[in-house]
Amino acid sequence: MNRRRVPIALRNLLHSRRRLVAALAGVIFAVVLVNIEIGILAGFISNSSGFIDRMPADVWVTGKGTKNFDQPFAIPETVLHRVRSVPEVAWAEDLFVSWSHWKLKSGTQEVVEIIGLPERGSLPIPWEVNPPEARDLREPYGVIIDEAEAARLEVTGIGQTSELMGTRVKVIGFTKGLRSFTTAPYVITRMNHALGMTQLNIGGLGYVLVKARDGVSGRALAAKLKERLPGYDVMTGTQFRNRTWGYWLFGTGVGSGFFISALLGFIVGGAVVGQVLYAMVMEQRPEFGVLKAMGSENTRLRNMVATQAMIIGITGYVLGMLATIPLQMMIVSVGTPFKLFWQLVAGGFLMTVGVCAAATVVPVLKIYALEPAMVFRGEGLSGGSKRARRTSGRRTAGKSGSPEAGPALSLHGICRGFAYAGGRAEVLKGTDLRVERGELVIVAGPSGSGKSTLLCVMGGLLEADRGSIRVFGRDLMEMDEDGIQRVRRSDIGFVFQNIYLMPALTALENVRIASDIKGSGRRSEEELLGYVGMAGMARKRPAELSGGEKQRVAIARALAGDPQVILADEPTASLDTENAYDVMDLLSRLARNDSRAVVVVTHDVRLFGYADRMYELEGGLTKEVEAYDEEYVSVFNGIGSDASLGLSGWGGEGDLVCVGEDRAGG
Predict the structure, then answer these.
(1) What domain count does the chain have?
(2) N or C: at which end does the chain have fewer Cβ atoms within 10 angstroms?
(3) Residue 400 CB neighbours (<10 A)
């Protein structure tokens, strides 16, 4: 049968909206911070190699030790002639790079970077120029600056004049997008003019740019020129770009500062996600305990938390990227370079997912350490419910399948104690119990007598110290953890005192999640809800149900996978009389009509009339009660004087105590 799996991870997140918003805010903050930090850095780094990337050259020749484009070591003009003499060279041109001072109208000066191009040759201005005819630089002492630097250089339009180191120049055009890493404005002019405009005479050229002939690769030409020019740096465009980037990123420490800020952003985001997931796990500990009690493996629960982390991470990353777009526009509008490469986007996504995955470690460890017995808020468990399964002796894997002959459930000589700071408390001291198919058995006892401990031992949630626990003939004491887990999945259903329906799921989905764990039974989830009289409430969430309706859904959940043993812990403790009777009618029907073995532990006298067999638990031992008539109930209520039954003090505050009718007809 094809069933849609319950998206429990998403439902839990949507149910805890405040925590979800907090987690998303943490991821969005981290993504935006990282995008801004790395985007600005990438913009500046991209500017540092603008000429390298745009010039139509395969190989760059410069002075030995040049670390970046803006600070070349000079080379003599003879190098240009030697390069041109190499047969594999299609053309070679010189490029002049140096520094100067631009005199402002206000009388102060601005540091600029001079780019000198040859008068005729193969080196264009590799940016858009306005007006286009200015690109040729034909006007004597004409210069071109970027439009974004006009205000900084106090240039109001084309034709304005200024001075560079005493040389009068005229602005003849503007580029668009020509920015430097150093933030000093570029000023482009002709080579012969540039030599007289510089801050210092570098005594030669800055670079020789070389184009390889057709059929010759840039690497091959660079290797050839290295042989001819051993005293100079010869690099392909890619190699020179990488050297320039490496210098600004790591040689100056600029990149480290940006990367540390970005890393802190991820750490903050990851911490927020981790805290939210941890809080959700702690809040939902009982629900996780219920899933474990039903036989869910740790892997399933781990995947649930991991799915929540991925939902938060992916959603937060998408929202963070959307939030980055208007911020990017604002940053660029004020002249700050900003670039988002696809590598940055992909890397940021992987980093976000990785940080969110790492944030699940502590919550998942908490789930792994969670013992399913914690859902029984009953007697004897305060001393610790940790299962300490023995490793000695033969342990079998446990098999489900056709029940063997004999009782559905039998306990013999069960002992269980708990250690505490002052010593050890023995809760069960040789307990015996037997439940047949088609039988409803009640185990009664005062608060603190060990009823819930006994129920946990029956269901394989607690390890007995000694004794035998047989489910359809298979001894749980001889099974390993996986075997017991399989028995819980296939043969045992639990009804809990506090119900523990998952608040984010509908009634139908609460039953369906149990089917996902235990497997499909004879009835579908819809049929199970109909069986317990809740067909019309399938789409309701627990908050929309009464106490009695919730317990009916919990019983339908216990029936998922068609278990033949039902263990109920105080199923009517929080119900009024009518709802208590309805729930017990239902449990009785499960036993008598479906031939299931049903065990109810309680101190509620209203339920005694439903029992096919009844045990009292006192002093760590069980005793089968042969008759539980009016006199017995009176003693149970502490009204009679027959202290030999040892039942004085039974019944908690707020219990409805009555003799009542035998609702089950027994």
Answers:
(1) 3
(2) N
(3) 18
What is the domain extent for residue 554? Answer: 409-645
CA–CA separation, 239 and 243 (whole Å): 6
Same domain, 474 and 584: yes
Residues 157 and 208 in one domain: yes
The residue among 531, 217, 494 whose CA lies nearest residue 376 is: 494
Q: What are phi and psi of 610, to 5 degrees?
A: -85, -10
The total of other beta-carbon atoms located within 10 Å of residue 397's CB is 11
Residue 626 corresponds to which amino acid?
A: E
Are 62 and 72 spatial neighbours (Cβ–Cβ below 8 Å)? yes
d(CA 612, CA 662): 11
pLDDT in tens, 2-24: 455 678 888 888 888 999 999 99
Phi-psi region of 166 (alpha: psi -120 to 50; beta: other; left: phi over 0): left
Residues 373 and 461: beta-carbon distance below 8 Å: yes
3 state DSSP class of 544: helix
Residue type, 273: V
CA distance 75 to 64: 9
pLDDT > 90? residue 472: yes
Contact 211, 89 (CB under 8 A): yes
DSSP string, 324-374: HHHHHHHHHHTT------HHHHHHHHHHHHHHHHHTTHHHHHHHHH--GGG
pLDDT of residue 394: 38
Euclidean distance between CA atoms 542 and 585, whole angstroms: 22
Lowest mean pLDDT among 123-137, 195-209, 423-437, 575-589: 195-209
Element (H, E) at 219: helix 218-228
- Structural contact between residues 404 and 473, judged by C-beta atoms closer than 8 angstroms: yes
Q: Confirm whether 666 is domain-assigned.
A: no
The full length of the chain comes to: 666
Contact assessment for residue 104 and residue 114, using Cβ atoms and an 8 Å cutoff: no
Do residue 214 and residue 280 come from a single domain? Answer: no
Contact criterion met (CB below 8 Å) for 293 and 287:
no
For residues 194 and 99, the answer to whether their CB atoms sit within 8 Å is no
DSSP, collapsed to helix, strand or coil, labels residue 661 as: coil
Same domain, 293 and 217: no
DSSP for 111-134? Answer: EEEEEEEPSSSS----SEEESGGG
Helix (H, G, I), strand (E, B) or coil at 244: helix
Domain annotation covers residue 582? yes
Alpha helices, H only, 148-284 = 191-194, 218-228, 237-246, 254-283
Same domain, 340 and 433: no
Asked whether residue 486 falls in the same domain as residue 599, the answer is yes
In degrees and rounded to multiples of 5, residue 340 shows phi and psi of -115, 105
Same domain as 216, residue 265: no
3 state SS of 289? helix
**Which residue carries 């439902």 as its tokens?**
11
Assess if residue 5 is contained within a domain.
Answer: no
Domain presence at residue 374: no
